[in-house]
Design a protein that fits this description.
With 553 residues, this protein is an alpha/beta fold. It is built from 17 helices and 27 strands. Helix 6 crosses helix 7, helix 9 crosses helix 10 and helix 12 crosses helix 13.
Length: 553
């Protein structure tokens, strides 16, 4: 194929207006035109299968009514408005209403336990919480611990201590003039998934949406084309679900799909086929489940995918190949964090996607791999991924976060000069492709050898008996550490003799990797600890090993 990457990267330049508001860009400007306003913004399907359609006009009217309601409740610019709702149109309207009044939208993942919700509400100092049945009871239970939380607005959740969504909106006019916001004004407070430790609040500006567009467009094979419809099962409370998915699609005036309830493989295929989805963003874990249960999905489902972005963890070569063959689309692996947006990725329509690679630097961003002394690494050497505050032309990168909420020391320590240190390790080949080598905290040494879990996990996942794998260091008094693997077996795996299967898997890894990478111990488990988005919470397994070894701290 024609590799267009060099020209795309060299010619891209940011053009960020001084004033910008996400709600105006994603909703109101479309509804201002009667023709555009009739376009479908959201296809919605609840857990019972009941479907509805929201046009841009309906979404804008609901947003304006709710914005008026927030003003009546005393919400001021800069106040945090928590939104704890499932994938439904009202969740988008709630975010847009917060943006409209100049407040900071604080989405919370649905289904969080009370303690997790309380800690986030306390940390954010949220004035108002907007909830549905999925999170209503938990937010109500957490309110007593959150002195700043003066009002809960509830949809489909009744309680004497909450205000009804429908009652609130019925009293409000459907006209509203958005508060003028600078592009660098705070817009979103997103809490990290907890995949690497305690969640932190990441404060993002309105311009972060513009900063996300190059990664979204590239990973979705130059979205939008006429008739494009976007869907992601990822949490709308995450950077991946919002800024790499829902908000960019709405920015371009196209339809998105929101589906409540779980996403077993059969339902994933039903959603893709029913709504004729052309563009999607999913996790590797979801793809593994699909491949295990539906080796040839297009035999029974009419799929219209033209682009598939994959992120959250590395995509194995076998899953890459399965996507291309079974789904008929080359997957575009992407890399990003809540703090940075999507900054590395593939775009099969514009430059070749390499199986197993994170991709190339997305145009508009300046990336380097730094060693322990902050010096750039040469090709082939593993270093820490760092994102510069400015692009290669010297323009400020709008995707970078403003700060960690109420954590000035953490914010300061996350930077080395103008470089944001991601904590992720990778190597760079001579063609500009990045290859993930794990998190900085995940890498350990075995008998003098540096070991990263990614290669071992990818190897184990190619074995027919393995459905999931996680590798951590097990404290070893003689060697400092040994390799331990946690393995989830495939549904059809036979393991009457765990010892025999462990030996088989060890031999399988030893045959393909170095002997020091072979797990000394394999523990079979029913599931692995993950975030709501499906990202492995490896630190939980590391802590378990340290506890079992009697190591503290």
């Amino acid at each position: 194929m024609n590799d267009q990457y060099p020209e795309l990267y060299q010619t891209f330049q940011w053009l960020i207006p001084s004033q910008f508001n996400i709600a105006q860009a994603c909703v109101h400007r479309w509804a201002e035109n009667s023709v555009e306003g009739r376009r479908i913004a959201i296809y919605h399907e609840d857990a019972a299968g009941i479907r509805s359609i929201w046009t841009y006009t309906r979404l804008a009217e609901t947003t304006r009514q709710l914005a008026n309601g927030l003003i009546k409740m005393g919400v001021q610019p800069g106040d945090r408005v928590a939104i704890a709702m499932d994938q439904r149109p009202e969740a988008i309207a709630a975010c847009m209403a917060a943006f409209s009044v100049g407040a900071v939208a604080t989405p919370l993942a649905s289904g969080l336990p009370v303690d997790s919700i309380a800690s986030r509400l306390q940390d954010a100092g949220a004035r108002v919480a907007i909830v549905d049945t999925e999170s209503g009871a938990s937010v109500l239970a957490a309110q007593a611990r959150c002195p700043a939380l003066s009002q809960i607005v509830a949809l489909d959740f009744a309680h004497e201590a909450v205000m009804s969504w429908r009652t609130l909106l019925a009293r409000q006019p459907s006209t509203f003039r958005d508060v003028a916001t600078r592009s660098d004004s705070a817009a979103l407070l997103l809490y990290t998934s907890g995949a690497t430790g305690a969640p932190k609040g990441v404060l993002l500006p309105h311009s972060a949406l513009l900063g996300s567009l190059p990664g979204f467009v590239a990973s979705q094979n130059w979205f939008p084309l006429k008739g494009d419809i976007f869907w992601t099962p990822l949490e709308w409370a995450s950077n991946a679900g919002l800024l790499n998915g829902i908000l960019p699609a709405l920015y371009f005036g196209h339809a998105v799909v929101g589906a409540q309830g779980g996403y077993p493989p059969a339902r994933v295929l039903e959603i893709l086929a029913r709504y004729r989805i052309t563009n999607a963003f999913v996790s590797p874990a979801m793809l593994r489940e699909l491949a295990a249960q539906f080796p040839a999905p297009r035999q029974d489902h009419m799929l219209t995918l033209r682009a598939l972005a994959v992120g959250g963890e590395s995509l194995s070569v076998s899953n890459f190949d399965w996507c291309a063959k079974a789904l008929g689309v080359t997957p575009n692996e992407v890399y990003g964090l809540a703090e940075t947006g999507c900054v590395i990725g593939n775009s099969a329509g514009r430059w070749p996607a390499r199986p197993g690679s994170m991709g190339r630097v997305i145009p508009g961003h300046q990336i380097a791999l730094l060693d322990n002394r902050g010096r750039p690494c040469r090709a082939g050497v593993v270093g820490e991924i760092a994102v510069h505050r400015r692009d290669s032309h010297g323009h400020a990168d709008p995707s970078l976060f403003l700060a960690y909420w109420n954590r000035p020391e953490d914010t300061q320590s996350a930077f080395s000069g103008d470089w944001y240190l991601t904590g992720d390790l990778a190597s760079l080949d001579t063609d500009g492709y990045y290859w993930h080598a794990g998190r900085r905290d995940d890498v350990f040494r075995v008998s003098g050898h540096r070991v990263g879990p990614a290669a071992i996990e990818d190897c184990l996942l190619t074995h027919a008996a393995v459905a999931g794998a996680a590798v951590v260091a097990k404290p070893d008094p003689n060697h400092g550490a040994s390799v331990k693997a946690y393995v989830v077996l495939a549904p059809n795996a036979h393991h009457e003799n765990d010892g025999a299967l462990q030996a088989e898997l060890q031999a399988y890894v030893r045959h393909q990797l170095a002997s020091y990478q072979t797990p000394r111990e394999i523990e079979f488990v029913d599931s692995l600890p993950t975030t709501p988005a499906g990202t492995l919470r490896r630190h939980v397994l590391r802590a378990r090993e340290l506890q079992q070894a009697g190591v503290t701290g």
